[in-house]
Fold each of these.
Amino acid sequence: MALLNAVLELADDHLILGHRISEWCGHAPMLEEDLALPNMALDMIGTARVLYDYAAKLEGQGRSEDDMAMLRVEREYRNCLLVERPNGDFAQTMLRQLYFATFMEPFWKAALASPDEVIRGVAGKAVKEMAYHIRHAAEWVIRLGDGTEESAAKMQAAVVELHRFTGELFESSAAAVSCEADGILPVRAEMRGEWDRVIGMVFGEALLELPDVPYPQAGGRDGIHGEGLGHLLAEMQYLQRAHPGAEW
Amino acid sequence: MVAVLDHKRAWDAAASVPDPEVPCVNVEELGILRSVDLVDGVAVAKVTPTYSGCPATMAIEMAIEVALREAGFDVRIERVLSPPWTTDWITEAGREKLRAYGIAPPVEASGSVRALFGEVTVACPRCGSEQTEKISEFGSTACKAQYRCLSCAEPFDYFKCI
């Protein structure tokens, strides 16, 4: 049961962020980004699919990966708050991407040593994809941060807006703690050093300042979400709810 | 002897399936067909996905199943995640076909992308020039990046190294 819930947390993180960046498809500021963002969305949704499929098997109640993704309600989602934040402007989108990928890359790298074959399999693919996501997002954060007066201001505003959601990445739910104790999943808090190092390096290049965070935000792992998630799910789940059982 | 011949026939049938997005190479040359075994008269093909979100994965599995059925076998397709596919598994013949098709093959062993701005030198598949530049890390499919040649001025796809 602990593994099921911990797997769902990871699956939800990837599906929700994958959906968020797919919202840029057709709206990105340039053609290359219109290709890049859905590409990264595919990476994350692909990862989520394998994890949902595994979760459904662990649950053993006959639910499918589609049921897991499309028929749960807001309070049942276990994603962290960072990934559900609205896209905002391009600065916010790229920073959210950088924050998440910079956490997931060392996480998946550590998960390569998991005794769980599915986790190891997912990690093997995802670790390489996350390296690309970090590079892509970091390049944009630097370009915008060390850019024009306007882009620098927007980038710094994005940092102020999003940094309070990053602490939750390093917190482990009771389910995750149990899996960490078994060595099946890496200890989230142990990603802190590498995350600080990469973010610090990028922010140094981007001339961005780390903000004080007096009120860190968390609660996603307990199903306590912001208003944005409900809107996201309403859109994402519309087809499946309007046409039950529909398949591509 | 018959079993050996059947096994070879099954392998050849499955291996001949082209990649739906990069049809110049087949699944053997891409290294995504791991094995075809005959188990109790059933051809069991093990297939590995390239990228997590590759939309071609299911199409490839279906195409392999169809190819094996047309060759007269009962079929079971198994998806294998570990160890993960890497571009190192693309055969030499596959790389040459990619280049001839206008896609620069992956140039370095996997793992190199971790360096934050570790750029690699990608030779233009048309004129061979190493004077090229990256336009975008992410191209028309999950497996490709976009480059442009500064010598012959042609844009081209680069098969990303993972």
Note: The mean pLDDT of chain A is 96.
Amino acid sequence: MMSELNTNTIALKTPLDAWHRNAGATMVPFAGYEMPIQYSSIVAEHQACRTSAALFDVSHMARLRFDGAGSEQLLDRLLTRKISDMPVGRVRYGLICKDDGGILDDVLVSHLETPSGQRYHLMVVNASNHQKIKDWITPHVADYPTVTMSDRTELTAMIAVQGPQAIEACKKLFSFDIDSLKYYQARIGEQFGKPIIVSRTGYTGEDGIELIVRAEDAVRVWENVLLAGRDQKFIAAGLGARDTLRMEAAMPLYGHELDETIDPISAGLSFACRLKDRSFIGVEALRQVNADGPKKIRVGLVPEGKRPARDGCGILDTSGNPIGVITSGGPSPTLAHPIAMGYVQTDHANDTNYQIDIRGKVVNATRVDLPFYKRTSN
Amino acid sequence: MTRDPSKLLYAESHEWADVSEQDGDKIATVGLSAFAITQLNDLVYMDLPEVGKEVTAGEEFGEVESVKAVSPLYSPVTGEVIEVHSDLPDSLEKLNEDPYDFGWILKVKLSDDSNLSSLMNAEAYEAQCGEAG
């Protein structure tokens, strides 16, 4: 029945590894790390995030720091969005593309300033793309002799605190008022005299913050947040809930909605591509896609019945002709029915009814607007 | 009926079989172990075969899905499906509480019982689960 029960892989461990194990987490190999997939129940952890707040160890995501004059020009060259016009305190989502427009990764870049006034950029990269992105960027760094790229992943930990009560409960924890941080803003503060980067970002569709701390401070910060949210019943949540949460929020995931064969415009990420008056790797290809229109488009689907469609299931038109493929699918704990995202040929993007081939059994499905779930207030 | 898990036979793939004699036939009731159900967690869907279908020991007869993943169900026995627990897919949450009575999945009339000796007793199965955990 289950192959995932017997996995013996030598894996990297995050600074919170022992905490997860003590808390009874089921640990699974993921992107070279052993990560908690769940502590008790994915559904319970998902619901805690939607109603209160949940903590996620996202230390496996890579953190690359860029220092020195020319960093902004380097990042402008690498990213679909302009970085050089970002004021200190801003966070921006962007994509790193190949010359043909295929997506190498989707990343967050923060412009930060240390208490001593030193400014730098910090890029958060998907765990599975850590080495690939470093290898991609390294030769470009060489073009900017004053720029240094340093990998901060092993030296730091990253914790996401996500949910409608996250901000209120965590207010007292930091040396500044985190309520003053607007969505996609970040700053360096302190907690008990130790440096901490706080950004108002996340990957669940909820309000919340993401924290980057020194590796040796990780357990203390994690426990402080849990304590701060004790009355609101904050809980730790694993990668399982993170996946169902981001799916409901229709956030694309690298390796599912995004990969090197997909360009950002087809992926529905035009908002993260500034093509005008710019020169970056892949810009010509993306201008061409923009002019011609994408050949396939990301859509949201709701299959009939209880059976979830999963990654890889074929999408058919109502006559049974293959027109696309599911990239993410599963049950939605909030909506209490299955949901799925996938790509369909552009000329079918506005169809209302589809079919999905779930491993040989064809079910009807309806197209719905994305996201499946949107929070009602901030 | 209260089925005693210590008296059942188990497949490596975590299904149990309770074999009894009825009118000269050997009938196996088949289910999924408590360990497997705990590990799977948050079950959302189960796909069962039709009555009359032939199942083969070690081969897939259906699927069970959790929030996270699809897992195939393998038959621990060989024979013909004579009954399926049709209420089960709509009551998967009850599997956690009662995997050995309410949680039965299939009844199979055995056409070949030669593989039964390769199934584990409860003790051997528990040892396997200990290693997996």
Note: Strands of chain B lie at 9-10, 15-22, 25-32, 43-47, 54-55, 60-66, 70-74, 78-84, 106-112.
